[in-house]
Amino acid sequence: MTDTKKSRHYESSLPMVSRRNFVKSGVLGGVAAYLAACDTNTQEEFFAKRFTELTPEALKERIAWLEKHYEKTYGEAFKVGTEGPIPDVLFGYALDLSRCVGCRRCAYACVSENNLSRDPQVHYIRVLEQPKGTGLDLHLANPYYERDHVPEEGHVYLPVACQQCENSPCERVCPVGATWKEPDGVIVVDYDWCIGCRYCMASCPYGARKFNWGAPKMTTGDSLAVKVLSAKPKGEGRFEVIVEEALDAPERLQPPHIMPTVVKRPFLDAKGNRFMTETLPVADTNPAARSTTRYRFEVVAKEAPATSSKDDEYGYFLDAVNPDTHYLGNRPRKKGVVEKCHFCLQRTRNGEYPACAEICPVGSRKFGNLLDPDSEIRYVLANKRVFVLKEELNTRPKFFYFFGV
Amino acid sequence: MRPTPLALVLSATLAFLGCYGEGKRGDEMPRFPDHKEIGSTTHSAANADPSSADIDEFAVQAKAPPISEGYFPCSDCHADMETNRERRELEDEHDSVVLKHGTRERWCFDCHDPDNRDELRLASGTKIPFEKSYRLCGQCHGPKLRDWRAGVHGKRTGKWNGEKEYLLCVHCHNPHAPLFAPLVPKRRPRAPHEITFSKD
User: Which of A213, B96, B104, B154 has the fewest CB atoms within 10 Å, counting from its CB?
Assistant: First the structure.
């Protein structure tokens, strides 16, 4: 009897589908249907391989696609670099706590240089203000301080970003291997491979990792920047320009900054004329203007930037997106991935200082090669009182704090 | 041959003494980075006395000295003028200079050369151009000069692994009133509950 029943049962289910296969094919079909409905961009992003697994040819193809994709999205030519670590280099950073005044220029230089999202806001560097004499009780620290002028009497400032730990918890908890330590000591993220689980954020004792809650926006008009006070011809298409930062920009606007001069990127006037900045800014030499935000630098342009006639006219805009990028560095991210400070890979692997170090008005930020005994950073380690944040956690940061005085 | 216990003790003592001696030497001679030269010759005299070594051996000056426009060369006006060495309040010219830098102890001619205004003057009487004004500052601020040479006081731009650009002391500090004026900070970041974004 039982045999008959069994055979009848077999007969009735002609192509036998196991429950597992049914679910599998359903899911695969769903994904395929979703991808088929998506544009080619999403498909390309979906099938992007992990950076470390790309063959040189595949990487080349990927870069070409990315550059084209970014150019289409942001309307200007992009360079996505893949410069590898320099042999015998281990990057280290030192910050002079006795000099930092908490002006937050580093945080905004970073935003501009590294294409951080302005909306929703992402900052790699948080500057903590703390009452003097409280040691490192970080629960007393306030990153949201608002002051007319800094440094505020009786307070010290502690800027915190990624500490580039040698023993990095974030790297270890990543379930998909989307973040790792490069041979030059920088912890990087493969934005194509990150699944946005945010385990790394939970594991980081420094709060250095940031999540893109929305699609990052860089061209929001937040970059209203400077007022041109004067422009003098210096010959051969060069002009000496004095600009002033727009400190009292409307609430909606990102705090303006002197980035066009720092990253040597073009800035635009209202008509879309481009002015390429050439030299680093120097604070206006008029002693009375030293505490103001006037800067003097050179631009290359066909004609001189027009001076802003009215007092409240800040007619020059930063070119908001930085098209000079690195694959593991500041190339535009997407919604749902984690990002972090990478010591400005696109700059430092080409010998430049990170943007935050270059902009610091008090020169409290020092950067260099820990393996070079003649470097500035080694001088700091050898001659100054140095400490690392949360040493007891054995994360072994390569970001050091010191007292220069 | 196996080392005898006596030889071991002796070598350990020697090693200890060696370390001690080295430590002493290190204390007496602070390390200066002036051996880090880029495309330049070594000055043995300069190495012997680091305070007189020129920084442009290993870095380039980023900017000309910040002298107010139309004021240099000083001799344009001063060549025909009689030198008034009296300490007084300046009225007709240079009245914007407010001295807040050792006000009681210092006067113009402690730094500016009374005989040739286009130059500066060290306490020793040595004359130096404005481009080397760091030597003047270093007369009193020795440790700062040492840190500055190492690129640790002040800011270096250029290349971290190549040619560096330096700023003079006076590019950041007004020599007549060197204390940094307070800065206007940038806007605070948004707190988590304030973060908004437009949905696409």
Answer: B104
